[in-house]
Hints:
Elements: E1 9-11, E2 14-16, E3 20-30, E4 36-45, E5 52-57, H1 64-75, E6 85-89, H2 94-99, H3 122-134, E7 140-147, E8 151-159, H4 164-173, E9 177-180, H5 188-194, E10 199-206, H6 212-228, E11 246-255, E12 260-264, E13 271-272, E14 277-282, E15 289-293, E16 298-304, E17 308-309, E18 314-322
Parallel strand pairs: 5-6, 5-7, 7-10, 8-9, 9-11
Antiparallel strand pairs: 1-2, 3-4, 4-6, 8-10, 8-16, 11-18, 12-14, 12-17, 13-16, 14-15, 16-18
Amino acid sequence: MNKVKAKPFVIAGTQIEPGSSVELKLNFAKLHTNTPVDVPVIIEHALYKGPTVLFTAGIHGDEVNGIEIVRQLVSKGINKPKIGTVICIPIVNIFGFLQKMREFPDGRDLNRSFPGSRSGSLAARVAHKLMKDIVPQADLCMDFHTGGSSRFNAPHVRVDGTSRKLNKLAKVFHPPFILHSKNLSKSFRVACKKQGVPHLLFEGGKSNSIDKVVSNTGVNGAKRVLNHLGMLRSNFKASIPSKSPIIITHSRWIRAHASGMFKPEVKVGTKVAVGDVVGHITDPYGKVHHWVKAPNPGIVFNVNEAPLVYQGDALFHISTQTK
């Protein structure tokens, strides 16, 4: 097939020429000290025409594992495509990242602020700029997240189960698990869908932590998708694991029936049967002991690793139906 020369395009007011590497600095606001806070946007535009893939991470500032995945894509040169364009934003919520916090300084969750507003809260302004200047350029967005509040996620991709295109791309990514989940109101995923941009959401690990297995899974999955699109350069391999992804079509949370000190007995990926003991809740004085048991057979793909829990806290995410 004859390659078609790429054309220049404009993003956030900057013209990107074919064969160029550009790092933009998007400025949303300043710190209290009047110090500007820039969000780097790393763009690799190949000489030849092809798809545009957007990699994002750090929508939540404490989800460092996702940031590590996009960092590796850039540092290893995986983001330099054979054809098309790759746009990387390793940290969207730079304010939360500086504070090691999930939210923005005003307490707002960026992933509940889309599509945003030019004159709204700080989170809404960031969401608006992302949707106005960056997302319209993309043919596909891959967004990397981790579990929150000490909850460790097995590496998995979340998609709308009704979308054949997204399910196909999720299988190309080839994570250990694919979770069918509904789009949440005002999320980045919903905003991308409304703009007609396919969105793969990767989850793995827990907040303020980097896990090598999780980051490797994310990087390798990104390579497989780029290879599928004809964008991965020949010096990179996109090997496919022998095991097929387990597709989780329905799931439920196991919650704490008591407050106390919590010790899980299973790890992510464990298959359990009804009544299996998956954890223990005790008091500090040796008088109380609650067994946490599996309410149904399934696979545990999220484990709360917090040593102290309150009644009602989510402890385990377990599948109820799989393919």
